[in-house]
Design a protein that fits this description.
The protein is mostly helical. It has six helices and two strands, in the order ββαααααα. Helix 1 packs antiparallel against helix 3 and helix 3 packs across helix 4.
């Protein structure tokens, strides 16, 4: 039953535990903003020219989706939306690597695992090119 209630990757920002989870809402927001797939948009996190803006956008989108989800599940939740500028205050040289790792881990755990049974070459021992 826990698979039906995903929690994402926990991260503490400004003393508050939050969760990064790539829901359909997050994927749609990122793809709409960048006009490309999420995977292509993730590449912006590693480019020196786009990293700063990209990390603020990704984190704001993930945090705001978390806040909406938590308020939907519990109307008394006190989680608030954040702006990209506020996210910039939450991310420092001390935690930027931790934040980047959490984003990438959330993307990895939020995507379906490849089903080994789908590869016809798996059983025969053949490898595809």
């Amino acid at each position: 039953m826990s698979d039906l209630n995903p929690v994402g990757v926990s991260i503490e920002l400004d003393g508050v535990e939050r969760h990064f989870l790539f829901t359909l809402n997050v994927v749609d927001a990122i793809e709409s903003h960048y006009g490309c797939t999420v995977f292509e948009a993730l590449e912006k996190l590693t480019s020196r020219d786009t990293q700063s803006e990209a990390i603020r956008f990704f984190v704001a989108t993930l945090l705001n989706d978390d806040a909406d989800y938590q308020r939907w599940k519990n109307p008394e939740s006190e989680l608030q939306h954040v702006t990209e500028k506020q996210v910039g205050w939450l991310i420092t040289v001390d935690n930027i690597n931790k934040v980047m790792a959490a984003i990438l881990k959330a993307y990895g755990i939020s995507m379906p695992e490849p089903d080994e049974d789908d590869d016809p070459n798996q059983m025969s021992g053949q490898q595809s090119d």
